[in-house]
Amino acid sequence: MTLEIDALSKRYGETIALDGVSFDVRPGEILGFVGSNGAGKTTTMRITLGVLAADAGQVRLDGRPVDLDVRRTIGYMPEERGLYPKMKVGEQLTYLAELHGMGRADARRASVHWAERLGISARLTSTVDALSLGNQQRVQLAAALVHDPAVLVLDEPFSGLDPVAVDVMSEVLREKARAGVPVLFSSHQLDLVQRLCDRVGIIVAGRMRTVGTVAEVRRGAGVRLEVHAPGAARGWADGLPGVTVEGAADGRTTLLLDRHADDQGVLAAALATGPVHGFTVRTPSLTDLYREVVA
């Protein structure tokens, strides 16, 4: 199944929350949805689940508009915990599975399975409010998985988790993707997004700035050079065409080159100052790319 987000727009009074947001999540793909607070990630996800109505645009699953029946096939994990605090974990997971159409026996089996898989089986008889925040997060993910969803939409699923729990959740998402499930999740942990996702979508002020693999996003960005020229005076690279000086200290200069800049021209300018001990192209991380796109 393919989850399609098609030209979503949403306004709150004078505030534009979404402005023609479009992207898709393909079968077996994990797509990381990143942006600053207030950029539109949660609004997009709530519209996808039918929690909010879009002013314009549509969400489709395999070409079918998302209605109540389609919604039951989606596993959703909200950023704010949506669990019943005084209800026992096992009873709650079973109840939520039944709400999605599972029979009582299958719902109970699924609850036990996901509690074991996520390391909370010892907490099945505990109430949610008796759990640590990390374990509440694990229960929230179990609630999104318990009905064997055809699509996963997760808003900040790794927030507040310890490294072991992050590894467990990451492997669960990979397993679901290998089974053909489209997985959409948002996160501020960009190193994790880079490691886990097949593609990334960056949203800024309600508009999608870029969607693609990290390699594809890199191709649209500039090239960073680190030049070690110990005899160079400060400002030696100022004025070079297509070159921005990002930092300079102790004879080392970090430069951002746009797609039209000539790296050999930069090298020649560096050599004109004296010996060059280092001339290194630095591959930008997703964090670097994100900063560049947002800026």
UniProtKB/TrEMBL annotation:
It holds the Pfam family DrrA1-3_C. Residues 3-230 form the ABC transporter domain. Keywords: ATP-binding, Nucleotide-binding, Transport. Coiled coil: none annotated. One of its GO terms (molecular function) is ATP binding. The keyword ATP-binding applies. The keyword Disulfide bond does not apply. It comes from the Bacteria. PROSITE patterns: ABC_TRANSPORTER_1, ABC_TRANSPORTER_2. PANTHER family: ABC TRANSPORTER, ATP-BINDING PROTEIN. Belongs to the ABC transporter superfamily. This is ABC-2 type transport system ATP-binding protein. It comes from Pseudonocardia parietis. The lineage of its organism: Bacteria, Bacillati, Actinomycetota, Actinomycetes, Pseudonocardiales.
